[in-house]
Amino acid sequence: MTGWRPPLALVLAWFALLALLALTVTLAYVPLHAFNAVAALTIGTIKAAIVAAVFMELRARGPRTFVFAGAGLFWLGILLWLGMMDFLTRT
Amino acid sequence: MSEDNYLNAGYSLRSWFLTTDHKRIAILYFASLIFFFFIGGAAATMIRIELATPQADLVSSDMYNRLFTMHGIIMVWFFLIPSIPNTLGNFIVPLMIGARDLAFPRLNLLSWYLFMLGGTVTLFAILAGGVDTGWTFYTPFSTLYSNSYVVLAVAGVFIAGFSSILTGLNFIITFHRLRAPGLTWYRLPLFIWSLYATSVILVLATPVLAMTLVLIAVERVLGVGIFDPRIGGDPLLFQHLFWFYSHPAVYIMILPGMGVINELVSCFSRKQVFGYKFVAWASMAIAAVGFLVWGHHMFVSGQSLLASLVFSFMSFIVAVPSAIKVFNWTATLHKGSIHFDAPMLYALAFIGLFTIGGLTGLFLACLAYDVHATDTYFVVAHFHYIMVGGMVTAYFGGLHYWWPKITGRLYSEYWARASAVLIFFGFNLTFFPQFVLGAEGMPRRYHVYPPEFQVWNVLSSGGAVILAVAYLMPMFYLGYSLFFGRRAPANPWNAPGLEWQTPSPPPEHNFDTQPVVTRPPYQYSPDFEAEPQNA
Amino acid sequence: MPDAVAPQFISVRHRDETAELGMWVFIATEVLLFGGLILGYLVYRHAYPAAFAAASRHTEIVIGTANTAILLTSSFLVAWAVEVFAAETRKICAGLLWAAIVLGMTFIVLKGIEYAGEYREHLVPGIDFNFKANEANGAQLFFVFYFVATAIHALHMLIGIGLLAVMATLTWRSPSTRHRAALHSTALYWHFVDLVWIFLFALIYLPGRSS
Amino acid sequence: MWREWIPFWHPGVSPHGGDVDLLFVGLLFASALVLGLLFFLLALFCVRYRASNAIDRGHQTSKSWHWEVSWTAASFVCFLALFVWGAVIYFQIYRTPPDELSVFVVAKQWMWKVQHTGGQSEINALHIPISRPIRLVMASQDVIHSFFIPALRLKHDVVPGRYQDLEITAEKPGHYHLFCAEYCGTEHSGMTGEIVAMEAADFAAWLTQQAPSGPLAQEGGALFRELGCSGCHGGGSKVHAPPLEGLYGKPVPLADGSFVTADDKYIRDSILLPRSQIAAGYEPLMPSFEGKVSEDQLLRLVAYIKSIGGQRP
What we know:
The complex is a heterotetramer of chains A (91), B (535), C (211) and D (313). Chain A is mainly α and 91 residues long. Chain A has helices at residues 8-29, 34-55, 63-88.
């Protein structure tokens, strides 16, 4: 029964995620006006990056997996960018 | 020809309906698509008959609206999108890249079942009373005002969408992981490149449609939703989401056709495709830039002028790779040794019709002219030139080209050429007058119309009769060849592609020995006279 | 246990890597599935900022935060299970998976409690909706988004729980290399469901808390 | 029939109609050139290099950067030129209308209702004087419709939930088609009408012949009292509500510190969604009139508030 302990990276990632969760909830109650949204989404992105890199083992994968994982995000960016463009520039 | 092949590997229903053999699944798709093509075609016939006179005489307005909606939904989602990828693609892709099967054979079968389930639900919606929203499902008409079976139809399309996604996923992984030894990316036939581009769109665009359809269903069921103008929702948001899928979907409907044309032009000019890398990357460019142009469906909808400007610009950009392809096909003919067999006639028809469709696309990309032409018959003619003149012609071309491989039989060359020529003339007679109608200002989806448009409508309806006959002809001579046609040799066109290096029809396991590729594609010898091989 | 590889693959490794790559493509599809909803959210948040903030204050941040922590932890457990997947540690591995499933179920139950609370507060568009008049429209759009997004997310959770249950059972019985690949793909899916929730949490629960 | 059938060509009769027609000819010309060249080459190669023709096929090239780059660049430059050409005219077509003679258009399944400011109303017809820009203020009562006049080379969707301004000008007298171009349900193809462009004098005569139920603003004034608006917004009211005299077209300071111009859209929004933009210094007391007033009535209210725009409060 060797090697049942979780790798350190996983545990650290888990703690980091919970800490970031606490941080983002706290920050939400601090009046920062427009920066509340920025903070929430930035911390969300950091959490997502940790999940992807550590839990989903993306850090140990080759460029092809990166491209596949990135393609979804890239096209999401196109959808949001060109979609919002209309609504932000209406007269 | 008593050897074992995939057709005589089993005769039970189970051996067909639970098969994971990509070749049999292709046949299942083929049979289903013929069925849907005839349903969609029947609706088109009714529409053209009705439009022969300006008044309403054959059907009521409600019925007419249901007819063109049914024609659109069936033809787009249940014929054009799966047409080449799921029949020819499914059959030929593993053979072309020297693989035993697709990467996920069971997923492939699941994809067919989802397709049939979606088709059944949609047909049920049609039989239950039909849908009258147009295939575009524009809100708030579809969500709050239509009295027809919108939710059911939307559910059918939703399910069929997942079938598309699974097919795209399967192809992408197959191309990455299952190529034969030595088959590098630049040694792949261009058909594979174009299917790769198609799959990217299938995987990345279809989910947005799925979500949009869910939102329609929610709004219809709850009576309130995020597109509802009564609570401050914006119907244009629906259009953005819908066209984010549906414009790239147009490229789903043409890229595989372009891929087939590469194979045909090259084979029947006995020459390499001119500018291989340009054509390959043009496919990828179309897939990528095709995602940036959707707003050109909305130039008069009230979207911001800046958005219109950007989308118009992108629409012109996406035309560049298409132009590159046309020029390269033409250059391929140069110094070729051109044979005018039936598939080549289809290919030439494709180039002509696709170019007309593409050039009229520029009219519509052009902001000021689109204000006049959008939602008129000009648009109808334009996209039929691309989808019917382009994709369906390519589909027929590819079907004739690979028919000997798929069935192991040769069809009648005489009748095949006759039908190719007839399709070309019938098609132009049907759809060219519609450009004139559109330029004159006749709106689309009109059941009755001012009498001065009648002349062109009569021409168009007349052409439709010819076209219908021309599309029926292959049913007969191809059907005849199944039973009475001469046995096809393994390589009737003396082509170097891997799919021709195995017997016709191929054995269940595709290749007796794993092929190894050592040279670029399209290394044709000038003649059909086969060198003695497989002797 | 002999591990037969389907004929289109050369080796076990070839097969497993292919399966994992397939899951990544599927995840790319899923990103775009939620993408459509997120565009809708951004458009209306831009149009009705005050109403969105007010509506967001009506969501249960305690349940939302607890659910986020639960999901992050279950993701951690699944990642851990993937690491310890081996014949000799199969029971530990299965146990971790069962723990993740229990957390997933807890998430669903809490979500149900939250839905019930929203129903009592008349926040369900189309069924029973009542909100301060000047912000009713934007809030209604917010809650349509909220219910569609969380319901679809919950559906993904249920599918994930089902997959994890199958994997836990298989692992308990006889782990083989085939199961390793399957567990890997399942884990990727589960982490993805987690990822989606991280963003839904930021979009649904956090806005408007400071005012 | 008023329009004789002429094959293929009816010149546009709006100021930019000529530009659009020229653009169309330009596009046709460019397409014909490309198509001609392509078909010529296809035919030439097909004949010259047919398999049975023993001709020199030496020195085949399978690729050439030279050619690829040239035709890519050539297509790109042509497309760019067409893009700019089309965009310039587009901005002319959709420029924001000056405050000219306004006509209100309400689209609903399946008719066009037209209200002139003088109170004259028409259904499925629109009479306008020629050579004078008309500002249409369009609204839809139900689904999306599209206001399409082929002869003016002009079209714009009418989306429910907002006003759409559109400037139209006809330069020649005549009867022109009006179509609904966005599919809107059962009688979509029956949602047609005619644009009657008349000489200014004829138009004035036509206006007087019509029996207006009363100028639009006057009807709006009646509604203003009927619906109880005057109870708060009228002079001498006990409720602290902003006075509306002299409001139209002026910038309004809002509670959040920003300013908004009191145009048609603002007035419409203030009636339907009164609390979305609160005027500075007032309590958000006004109830929403959403669902209580039709698009027709809204137009009258807007016309009324506009008519008292010149008065000092």
